[in-house]
Structures are given as structure tokens and as C-alpha cells.
Amino acid sequence: MEALAEMIVLARSECAGHSVHTSRLHHRHFPELWVECESPIAAANHLLNQLVRAMDSVSGIRARESFETAIEEVKAFAESLRASELDEEASEQPHSEAASSIGRRIGRVLGRSMSTKPLASDPNG
Predict the structure, then answer these.
(1) pLDDT tens-digit profile of 31-48?
(2) Domain segments of the chain as ranges
(3) Residue 57 three-state SS
(4) What is the pTM of this model?
(5) Rounded CA gap, 95 and 100, in Å?
(6) What strands lie across the sheet with 30-37, from one edge to the other?
């Protein structure tokens, strides 16, 4: 990932109104091809599309090879982002399962389901 971080530049930014957070991404060899999206993964996917499209208009073998290398590096970067996102989801999942399990146990102890619905005897419900 460190080698990829040297080649792929990811910058977090905001829109002009400071209400939407965006991710701006470009490859160091092709700074003129930059993208701005709502997440780093979406930006990586969009940058891949831009690189492939730009490679179609290149005629030299060396230029094509540098585009192919950049495409492979962006693909690897996107995969590392997906893997880290899956790791975060996996680490959060046991906590949510434990919380719902505790809620079910408390509901059984109290003799009713733990839900957000008001009880039938609730005058406000």
C-alpha cells in the first residue's frame, strides 16, 4: 500500500458550500487526469475509466505501457480500499450483533419485545 500511496494521490476536500465532502484522486504520472467523487472507492473507479479512455487515444508503445502500469496501480489501490472497508465492516459487525442480542435478552427478562412501538396501555401512543 505504501508504494501505491506514492503513485496515487488522494486528497479529501469539500464543495464550495462546505456541505459535501469529496475525494479528489489522480495518478502522479498523469496529474491532468484527476477525478472528484463522494468516496475514495468511487474516485478510484472513475479514475480507472478516465485512464482507460485516455489510453485509447495513445499511439506509442511506451505511452501505452505507462497507461497500463497506471491502470494496474489504480486497480490495486481500489482493491486495497475495498479490503480496508470490508475490514472495518467486519470489526463493527460483532458489536451490532452483540447489542441486538443484549436487547433481545432484556426483552425476554421484561416479558415483552424490545421495539420502538408504544405499548397498548401507553396513553400517548
Answers:
(1) 999 999 889 999 999 999
(2) 2-85
(3) coil
(4) 0.64
(5) 9
(6) 8-14, 21-27, 30-37
